[in-house]
Design goal:
Largest sheet: 5 strands, mixed
CATH topology: Aminopeptidase
InterPro entries: Acetyltransferase_Butenolide, Acyl_CoA_acyltransferase, GNAT_dom
Radius of gyration: 15 Å
Protein name: GNAT family N-acetyltransferase
Oligomer: single chain
CATH superfamily: Gcn5-related N-acetyltransferase (GNAT)
Order of helices and strands: EHHEEEHEH
Shape: globular
Length: about 140
Amino acid sequence: MNRTYIVNQLSERHFQDLMNLYNEASWTKTRTSDQVREMIDNSYIFGLCDSESDQLIGFTRVVTDYVFRATIYDVIVLKQFQGEGFGRLLIEAVVNSTLIKGIERVDLFCADNKVMFYEKWGFKQVPITTNYMSLMK
């Protein structure tokens, strides 16, 4: 896996790669360029780039208060690179980062078929003891 490197800021080229990556996935394809720029400004990002082509091939982000809570969002890898361990590299970059060291609780949301993937790093399904609520606009 030494053919990749992690970035925490995106060049304009990497930003365009991210928009292409988002357009590829059903759950992110409606995001506009302006929305994604604002999202990046308000998140700590982990971009996974191919060393040879400098293409952004994977991405995730963290939103945190730096003390009590952090949430991982948007773990995504280009389809042609899925199944090659690149998602693992992204999650390892996050869980090994100084960003989340000492934070009381790190959360993420995932599809049912991804639960076992995240359990490898100690993530556990949280028993519902309170109501999960959302204000949709």
